[in-house]
Amino acid sequence: MKAKPSPPGENGTGGRTLLGFDPNVFFAGVVSFFMDVSSEMIYPLVPLFLANTLGIDKAVIGLIEGVAESTASLLKVFSGWLSDRLGNRKWLMAAGYAVSTLSRPLIALAPGWHQVLGARFVDRFGKGVRTAPRDAIIAESAEYSHLGRAFGLHRGMDTMGAVAGPALAFLLLGLSNNRYRLVFWLSMLPGLIAVAVIIIGIREKKRAAAARAARPRLTLAHFDWRFKLFVVIAALFALGNSSDVFLILRAQQLGIPAVTIPLVYLLFNLVYSLSAMPAGMAADRFGRKRIILLGFVLFALLYYGFAVAATARAVWLLFGLYGLFMGLTEGIQKAFLATIIPRDFKATAFGVFTTAVGIATLPASLIGGWLWDRVAPAATFYFGAATASTSAVLFAMYIIMSGGGRRKS
C-alpha cells in the first residue's frame, strides 16, 4: 500500500522566522551560497584547464564530467533512503559538504586528466551524499502553500553564490592567465564556511526511534505513477542536457576569450539567481507544472540557438536565457515533487529523482562529446534541443493525465 503525500498544513514549524522564512530554509540557502562560491570559482575553469593547459580532447572532457556526475549520483538515492531510515538529515548533509570541500586540493595538485577525474568524482560524491537530505529538510520546513517560494529562495541563494564564484575567479585570472591552480586552492575557504553554517544553524526535528525502525526496505512501491512517470520524463530530458562544459567550450569557439569566460558564466548565474525566487512564487500561484513545461520549451529553443549561433554577441544572450531556464525548472521541479511524494519518504524520493537524472548525464555528456568531435559542435546542441522538445510533449501529456495545471501542483 502506497503512503499518501503530505497534506496541506503538514509542513513548516509555525515558529520563528528569518526574513519571513523558516530558519532551516534560510540557513540551507546560506550554506548553498557559500558552497556555490567554492564550486563556481573552479567549475568554468576546469574545461579550460583540461583543454588549454593539459591538451585533452573534448570527448575525454565529456567522459570526465559524465562519469563524475553519474557515478556520484548513484549515492543520492541511498543517501536519501539512509536519511529517512536513520531520521537524520543534518549530519549527512554536513558530511557531504565537507567531502566536496576536501576535493579542492586534489584538483589544485592534479598533473593530468586522471587526477582531475578523481577530484571531480570526490566533489560529486559529496554532492551525492548531501543533496537528498538537504532537499528533505527544506521540504519539511516550508509551508505546503509556499514550497515553490522556499525552493526558489534556496536556488536563488545557491546561484547568487555561483555569481560571486566566477566573479572572484575572473579577478584572480586577471592577474595572470596561468593562475588556475591558485583559484582551485582558494576555493576551499567558502566551502569550509558552508560546513560551519550547517553545524551552527540547521536544526532538524527529531524522529521517534520506533518510527525509524518501522521503515521498510528501499523500494519504489511507496510511490505512485505520477512520481515514476515524472522521473522518467526528467531523465529523458537530462539525456540531452549534456554538461555545461560544452556551453563554455562553445562560447570560447565563438570568440569569447578564456579570461572572459567566468563573466559569461557569471551572467548565467546572475539571471538564474534573480529569476529563481519570482519563478517559485509564480509556480505557487499559477501551477508548478505549467512553469516546468515552459522551462522545457525554453531549453529546446536556447539549445537550438547554441547550435546556430555565429557570433560572440549571441553567446551572451543565450547564457542569459539559460539562466532563465534554470530559474524556471531547478527548484520548481523539487517543489512539485514535494507535493506528490509520501511524507515518510521525502529524502528517498528526492534521492531517486536526482539519481535518475544524474545517471542520464553520463550518456548525455558522452554523446555530447562524441557528436562534437565526430560530427560537429552544433550537433551536440541539436541533440539537446530534440530531447527537450520530446520531453516537453510528454510532460504536456502528463499534465493532462494528472488533471491539468491546477494551482496547487
Structure commentary:
The protein has 409 residues and is mostly helical. The chain has one domain: Growth Hormone, Chain: A. The chain has 17 helices and no strands. The longest helix is centred in the first third of the chain and has 29 residues.
What are the defining features of this structure?
single chain; mainly alpha
How would you summarize this macromolecular structure in one to three sentences?
The protein is mainly alpha-helical. 76% of the residues lie in helices and 0% in strands. It has a single domain (23-206, 218-401), classed as Growth Hormone, Chain: A, CATH 1.20.1250.
Shape: globular
Kindly report the oligomeric state of this protein. single chain
Number of helices: 17
Structural class: mainly alpha
Q: What is the CATH H-level superfamily?
A: MFS general substrate transporter like domains
H/E series? HHHHHHHHHHHHHHHHH
Q: Please, what is the average pLDDT?
A: 82
Spatial extent as radius of gyration: 20 Å
Terminal Cα separation, in Å?
A: 23 Å
Report helical residue fraction: over 70%
How is the main sheet built? Answer: none
Topology:
Elements: H1 23-42, H2 46-53, H3 58-86, H4 90-102, H5 104-108, H6 113-141, H7 147-175, H8 180-186, H9 188-201, H10 209-213, H11 225-240, H12 245-253, H13 261-286, H14 288-308, H15 312-337, H16 346-374, H17 377-401
Helix pairs in contact: 1-6, 1-7, 1-9, 3-6, 3-16, 4-6, 4-9, 6-16, 7-13, 7-15, 11-16, 11-17, 13-14, 13-15, 14-15, 14-17, 16-17
